Write the structure tokens for this entry.
Amino acid sequence: MNQIIEKKLGIWMDHASAHFVDASDNPIAINSIQSKFTHQEKEHSLNKSENLMHHKEQHLQADYYKKISEVILKFDHIVLFGPTQAKAELFNFLKENHHFDKIKIHLQQTNKMTDSEMNLFTRNYFSIFA
């Protein structure tokens, strides 16, 4: 009988970057996506107008979450972790799309982490909650 192997992914994220820890593979690999809404972009937009800055920020954040969601679609079980509200914003973004209904997604509050700490957190999370 074939056993279906669940594909698991940890994502440490804030509003600037998302780091993907694929817990399905051994060794665990880390890749990342950077938000295009950088501090320099914020300053540039803010100099033009605050309204423009907020519009541009919303557009670039939506684009950032869309790129992350394209990666998430390839997995069965996700843990979003990190120090900011970005993970909750992404979670709400995903809940609006029925393509993510069958993917298990959990949120965990953590501090900033090194790649090694992200690996360890993801490995521990899936050994306990998977």
In short: The beta strands are 8-13, 17-22, 29-34, 77-82, 104-109. Residues 8-129 form a domain with the Nucleotidyltransferase; domain 5 fold (CATH 3.30.420.60). The chain has a mean pLDDT of 83. Residues 91 and 105 are 8 Å apart (CA to CA).
